[in-house]
Amino acid sequence: MRDPEQVVRGLFDAVSRLDPDELCSYFTPDAVFVNGASFTLRGERELRGFFEELRGRVQRNEFEVLNLAVSGDVVLTERIDRVVVDGRVAAWRDYFDRGQSGFERDPVR
Questions:
Q1: Where residue 77 sits, what CATH number does that domain have?
Q2: Structural domains in the chain (count)
Q3: Burial class (CB in 10 A: 0-12, 13-18, 19+), 15
Q4: Span 47-104, pLDDT tens digits
Q5: Cα 72 vs. chain centroid, distance in angstroms?
Q6: Its pTM surpasses 0.85
Q7: Domain boundaries, position 84
């Protein structure tokens, strides 16, 4: 069995090359990829189609792993995704711990 951490790190490294064949090699033929609340892909055909679309639209795509935890075959990551589509920002989402952000103490007015 391959080391789960190395599989995930290899996948994240492969993301920067946007090669559909290489990316699909990290998934089982019947894999399910759930992208948050956005969409779900099932099987190699859907994954390959998604990766081919990315390759056609994305100029830069890389993941920076901030934290990674492994328990058996489960891998959890905290990461920064850097994606450039058509030379412009395609999406921006901020996530933060409201208890640590200061918003409760000093709300923006």
A1: 3.10.450.50
A2: 1
A3: buried
A4: 999 999 999 988 888 889 999 999 999 999 999 888 888 777 776 766 655 555 555 5
A5: 21
A6: no
A7: 4-101
